[in-house]
From TrEMBL, chain A:
Membrane topology: Multi-pass membrane protein
Protein name: NADH-quinone oxidoreductase subunit H
Keyword Transmembrane: yes
Family: Belongs to the complex I subunit 1 family.
Organism: Halomonas rhizosphaerae
Keyword Membrane: yes
From TrEMBL, chain B:
Biological role stated in the UniProt entry: NDH-1 shuttles electrons from NADH, via FMN and iron-sulfur (Fe-S) centers, to quinones in the respiratory chain.
Main location: membrane
Catalytic activity line of the entry: a quinone + NADH + 5 H(+)(in) = a quinol + NAD(+) + 4 H(+)(out)
Family in the record: Belongs to the complex I subunit 3 family.
Keyword Transmembrane helix: yes
Compartments (UniProt record): Cell membrane; Membrane
Organism: Halomonas rhizosphaerae
Bilayer disposition of the protein: Multi-pass membrane protein
Protein name, as recorded: NADH-quinone oxidoreductase subunit
């Protein structure tokens, strides 16, 4: 029951995100369009490029979808509404999403195409840039909650959300989450208009549909993670807890879309520089500030 | 729910997701075969096969960062257990990890001064 509810929430959010994404780029609100687009892929040919690494080529879209779903499975949407409330939940989110890199490298290597290959290896550079900015802010969140249980992390924000308690961590995590989901200013591995789709370039038919669905679910998973770690999870007045989770998740996801809509794509070298020369010192500072606040303010 | 049950549940979820995708692939395949036409399977590269192996197209110019990344990634493995007991241990925990992080941060500054933090 819980599993069905969580998966339904995930799919509905992904669908709403797809509708809003199309609305932003075309200016027309067509709620059925994502479903039709998905169905239309059923009737299309799913080509296998010449001399592929078949195992990698087939695994990549499935792996991306699986890790996004696994990441979402440990994030609570309401009290009791979580598939598996692991004792190492916050760490598990990290561990699952580390495989996004593996999936993208596989998608890059598998089809034996130049554009895909460049996209895949580029994402490895992107991981080196964003990874620390995912794990370090989560550490500061765990310090306040004194636990890696995601439900305990939400409970620790009952009086004050982490976005107020550690705004620096929130900003860093939000940017890194966009880079992890390869959303617009950080869409280096796909880079439409520069890499001809990059890792997407050789996928057609149902495989492409799965890859696109996986990307949407990944964004929703990261938006849920942002909600759980920083926006107080299900806490909120009047409305039921699950509604607050959904509203916050969608708000985060849409703000990621909007940020990408108005910003130019960043260069890989610049991304690495900014993350290591500014991001990591700030993330360490965030840990120090949170540590002092925990000791000084009981 | 015990930890074993939770992980079994996650394993089930994983297998279920794979199953759904395989069903979709099966459904798509039942719609009709792929027609084999010449040149259709050439990867996107102006319609011709590339002369050189494609993996030669990219040079990992971020290797300076990658080496520093290894050090930081190892450090994060210690940070999580530390974060959980931080409030109990109090000032001792802050000083212990502070010294550790300070050394690591000095390493970052040293790497920066030696030009590790740029695209090689």
């Amino acid at each position: 029951m819980t599993i069905a509810a969580v998966l339904l929430a995930l799919m509905v959010s992904a669908w709403l995100l797809a509708v809003i994404e199309a609305w932003l780029s075309t200016g027309r609100l067509r709620p059925v369009a994502p479903l039709l687009a998905g169905l239309s892929h059923l009737g299309r040919e799913s080509l296998l490029p010449r001399k592929p690494d078949r195992l990698f080529f087939e695994t990549a879209p499935v792996l991306l979808l699986v890790v996004a779903v696994l990441g979402a499975a440990v994030l609570p949407l309401a009290p009791g509404l979580v598939i598996a409330d692991l004792a190492t939940g916050a760490l598990f989110v990290n561990a699952a999403l580390a495989y996004v890199l593996v999936a993208l490298i596989m998608a890059g290597w598998g089809p034996n195409g130049a554009y895909a290959m460049v996209g895949g290896w580029r994402f490895l550079g992107q991981l080196i840039a964003y990874a620390m900015l995912i794990v370090m802010p989560i550490t500061a969140v765990a310090m306040r909650a004194e636990s890696l249980l995601n439900t305990a992390i939400v409970a620790s924000q009952a009086s004050l959300w982490n976005i107020v308690y550690q705004p620096l961590g929130f900003v860093l995590f939000f940017i890194a989450a966009m880079a992890l989901a390869f959303r617009a200013p950080f869409d280096l591995p796909t880079a439409p208009g520069e890499l001809a789709g990059g890792v997407d370039a050789e996928y057609t038919g149902m495989r492409l549909a799965v890859l696109r669905l996986a990307r949407l679910v990944l964004v929703i998973t990261l938006a849920t993670a942002t909600t759980v770690f920083y926006l107080g999870g299900w806490h909120g007045p009047l409305l039921p807890p699950w509604a607050w989770s959904l509203i916050k998740t969608l708000t985060v996801a849409v703000s990621m879309l909007l940020a990408g809509h108005y910003l130019p794509r960043i260069r890989e070298a610049d991304l690495l520089s900014w993350c290591w020369k500014l991001g990591i010192p700030l993330a360490l500072l965030n840990i120090l500030i949170v540590g002092l606040m925990i000791l000084v303010v009981p | 729910m015990s930890a074993t049950q939770q992980y079994l549940l996650l394993l089930g979820l994983m297998l279920g997701t794979v199953g759904v995708v395989l069903c979709l692939y099966g459904l798509a395949r039942s719609m009709g075969p792929t027609h084999g036409e010449p040149g259709k399977d050439v990867p996107a590269s102006a319609g011709v096969l590339s002369r050189d192996p494609v993996w030669g197209r990219y040079h990992a110019r971020y290797y300076g960062y990658a080496l520093l990344f290894l050090a930081f990634d190892m450090e994060m493995a210690y940070m999580y257990p530390w974060a959980v007991v931080y409030k109990q241990e109090g000032l001792v925990a802050l000083l212990d990890m502070g010294v550790f992080l300070a050394i690591l941060f000095l390493g970052l500054l040293y790497g920066w001064s030696q030009g590790a933090l740029r695209r090689q």
